[in-house]
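Dear Dr. H.,

I hope your travels went smoothly. While you were away I took the liberty of generating a structure for the chain from your last submission, since the lab meeting agenda had it listed for discussion. I wanted you to have the full record in hand beforehand rather than looking at slides cold. The sequence, exactly as received, is reproduced here:
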Amino acid sequence: MIIDTHAHIGSMIGFNMTKEDVLYSMERYRIDFSLVSNIEGAEYDHQGKKLKKDCQTPQNEVFKRTLSFAREHPDKIGALPWMKPCSELPDEEFVRLIRDNRDIVYGIKLHPFHSPIAPDDDRMEPIYRLAAEYRLPIVSHTGGNEPASVKHLYLAAKKHPELNFVMVHMGLGTDNKEAIELIADLPNLYGDTTWVPLSSTLSALKRCGSEKILFGSDNPIDGRDTYLCNRQGDRSLYQEYFHELKALIPNSDYENIMFRNALRLFHIRIDHS
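The corresponding predicted structure, in token form, is as follows:
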């Protein structure tokens, strides 16, 4: 079994990730379940410039589009609502959408690179209160700008021991060493493998234990064959996770990374009947 805890849909900021590509890739590369957020929740572009209002989608609409995909395929897709903390906080409708769809909502997605507010900023507290009420883990991008630095997510997790936090990328664009040390320091802080070299994941396993790392990919950011190759045709590092990693660690550790930790952390129930 493989659970991908970090997949996307949506068209925004130069990306076009379709529902069809997610489903195609899952079938072709034998992914059993994916947690999906919608990139149309981005508030700032790659250069840190705020997107014009007419280029943005309201938070509740972004959430509804994610829910629609998960509701169509509840045995394969789980929803992670993408928050827009620079311009919106959860309103009554957003809370209702969580309450009425709790069976397909598995966590809350933060992206402090595309919404540059640090996770430990006091403005995030209403989101954390909502997450605690519905027992939803916080899944956050790390890397690329100061608000998205790993230390801020660490401080948020330290401040909120009642919540579980997933450090996506473990510091994108870094050697991952700081992230690994921070993950090891807190019981409620986890890492994911998205664009993380296999060597760093092996280091994380030694330092943190296999119970603290989850498989994630950003699928289908490089197209429908993201699991196989990048846009230039070079072999994807995820092929190393599917094949080489298995021979390097005990099977119990491999299963923890590839699906057992996700089942436990997100309370995913997959019906194989």
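Two observations you may find useful: The first strand starts at residue 3 and ends at 12. The longest helix spans residues 251-266.

With kind regards,
E. W.
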